[in-house]
Amino acid sequence: MKRRQLLQASASLLCLPRLARAQGFPTKPIRYIVPVAAGGGNDMIARVVTQRWGTALGQPFVVDNQGGGGGVIASQTVARAAPDGYTLMQGYVATHGTNPATRKVPYDAVKDFTPIGMIGATPNVLVVASSVPVKTVAEFIDYVKRNPDRVNYGSAGPGSLTHLTMELLKHEAGLSMTHIPYKGIAPAFNDLLGGQTQAMFPGLAAALPHLRSGRARALAVTGSRRSSQLPDLPTMDEAGFKGFDAMQWYGSVGPAGMPADIVKRLNETQVAVLKDPDLREKLAGEAVEPWPMTPEQFGQYIRSEIERWTALARARNIKLDD
């Protein structure tokens, strides 16, 4: 009996340093690196979330925008940082999904990072110019098949989610269309509205103003359920493409090797913040819905994203390093 009590006491003593560390964390501001320039949806999401997250933790977050290289600069900075919880990053579908799948990047999106938690996601939406005579996904597919290589689709750039999502549809539906890449979603939309391209798969937030003006027409959204922004619009799944759930997602990660107790504290406070109705309302401005996950769930999600886009890139022969 005494031996058992001694073992239990020893185990409790071993846990004390970890408990003290987690309860005392953080003792100073946390640097939160955002892999894009200031302004825009990605940056806005980071700022509204970290403002509330810092309040929950009792220390402010300092947002550090490090754009450039498609997120490579920011990712390298975080991967090389001390794994003490004071340097985090807003990883998203490009840095931890499409980029590693389509090009060589100087970091391992899985091994070099500690997943903290998913923040939220927004669907992509299949849109066509108002001049295209289709109103459903089935009609669009029929139209493209009747006009092989005569339908142009725009994207925000090679390897972007807007590019790969349309390539996924081409792959699954057996379509032949011409890709016209742009340097960002704004010029891509300009040419769609001007008639130079006929279709696109942008993020919902970027599409909404043009859909509401009637200058572009939505056919379906990606994801497993309909968007609250367009509740009458079917999902690609409902249109017959099962599992077509390409999403623009955002989450928090840190350097590899972060202590489990600090990761737990960061995740629990982040999840609590994501349940706030006020935050949900703020994120709705970017058509983002909170999507809280445990670190383990988020880590698995990142791995599955890299796997799916890598498989598509191989199937479509998309090699952006060539």
Report on this model:
It is a single chain. The protein has eleven helices and eleven strands. The protein has 322 residues and is an alpha/beta fold. It has two domains: 161 residues, Bordetella uptake gene, domain 1 (D-Maltodextrin-Binding Protein, domain 2), CATH 3.40.190; 97 residues, Periplasmic binding protein-like II (D-Maltodextrin-Binding Protein, domain 2), CATH 3.40.190.10. It has a six-stranded mixed β-sheet with strand order 2-1-3-10-4-11, sandwiched between helices. A three-stranded antiparallel β-sheet has the order 8-5-9. Strand 1, helix 2 and strand 2 form a beta-alpha-beta unit. Helix 2 crosses helix 9, helix 4 packs parallel to helix 11 and helix 6 packs across helix 11. The longest helix has 23 residues.
List its salient traits.
alpha/beta, 44% helix, six-stranded mixed beta sheet, D-Maltodextrin-Binding Protein, domain 2, three-stranded antiparallel beta sheet, 322 residues
> Please, how many domains?
2
Radius of gyration: 22 Å
What is the residue-mean pLDDT, rounded to a whole number? 93
Helical content class: 40-55%
Shape: globular
Share of β-strand residues:
15-25%
Number of strands: 11
Counting helices, strands and paired strands, the structural category is alpha/beta
CATH topology of the largest domain: D-Maltodextrin-Binding Protein, domain 2
Describe the secondary structure blueprint for this structure:
Layout: H1 2-24, E1 30-34, H2 41-57, E2 61-65, H3 72-79, E3 87-92, H4 94-102, E4 113-123, E5 125-129, H5 137-146, E6 152-155, H6 161-173, E7 178-181, H7 185-194, E8 199-200, H8 204-213, E9 216-221, E10 247-255, H9 260-274, H10 277-283, E11 289-290, H11 295-315
Parallel strand pairs: 1-2, 1-3, 6-7
Antiparallel strand pairs: 3-10, 4-10, 4-11, 5-8, 5-9
Helix pairs in contact: 1-9, 2-9, 4-11, 6-11
